[in-house]
Amino acid sequence: MSAYESTTRNDGPPIEIRGLVNQFGDRVIHQDLDLTVERGKILGVVGGSGSGKTVLLKSILGLLRFKSGQINIFGQDIATASKKQKLDVQSRSGVLFQSGALFSSLTVLENIMVPMAEFTKLNRRESKRIGLLKMSLAGLPLNAADLMPSELSGGMIKRAALARSLALDPELLFLDEPTAGLDPISAAAFDALIKELASSLGLTVFMITHDLDSLYTITDEVAVLADKHVVAKAPPLELEKSDHPWIHEYFHGPRGRLGGKMRDHTPSGDQES
Ligand SMILES: Nc1ncnc2c1ncn2[C@@H]1O[C@H](COP(=O)(O)OP(=O)(O)OP(=O)(O)O)[C@@H](O)[C@H]1O
């Protein structure tokens, strides 16, 4: 049964990682990393530059061979999965890469139709109809269907890539810094779109982000990557209270939201009495 025909199957958490180790030469990136993402939740993933967020995403997506540990997607151990099982997992997942990763020689609609050609037996007319539906879900005007990626704004590229990631009605959506490069208004609109889609489509979302506003607005929980593993996983309002040095700095440092709030309320010269 293709993903397109499938209904949600009840088979283990969408993502379950145990004892993951990733290493390049002598350099250990992940050591005994554990992480579970429950069905229907939006998980934000944060961590300093070089903490291994992208390596983690690539490991989960099967784009990188990890040294040891176990990654189960929908209960399927991806290291031992057969080709058919891997295809099944892939067809139940959508990925929005940071750059959008659209095929530059294809129109917007053709880009969105690629996964359908790859994973389903839908004919071109049906794929087109579904592609247009996904465009509207992602908030793209239908007259963008025939545009080339080079003709799109940054925000439209993200929406086209989002439409493509939704092409197969995924249960699990991976987002790599979805609001990076967007102005604050477009970023807020994109956040709202993700939240709305996740709720209406019942998606589980794994989202790498540096955007504090996104964390507070749309995530249920945030996993923090530091010291080579997940040091905390909790709702943002709970994480604020953590005394882990990196987490504290993240929320309370000069670029942190709370740091900003404190700055806003710090009297400068004329003080309130
Ligand atoms: N293929 C590779 N070969 C060798 N080292 C790699 C490879 N891929 C990643 N690394 C190293 O692994 C570490 C983690 O990289 P990663 O891209 O996952 O960080 P990140 O948390 O996503 O950072 P950023 O927030 O800056 O994007 C980095 O030090 C990087 O240089």
From TrEMBL:
Read off the PROSITE patterns from this record.
ABC_TRANSPORTER_1, ABC_TRANSPORTER_2
Keyword annotations: ATP-binding, Nucleotide-binding, Transport
Residue ranges constituting the ABC transporter domain according to the UniProt record:
15-252
Mind telling me which Gene3D superfamilies this protein's record contains? P-loop containing nucleotide triphosphate hydrolases
At the top level of its lineage, which domain of life is listed? Answer: Bacteria
Write out the GO MF terms.
Answer: ATP binding; ATP hydrolysis activity
Checking SMART domains in the record gives: AAA
**Quick check: keyword Transport in the entry?**
yes
The name under which this protein is listed is ABC transporter ATP-binding protein
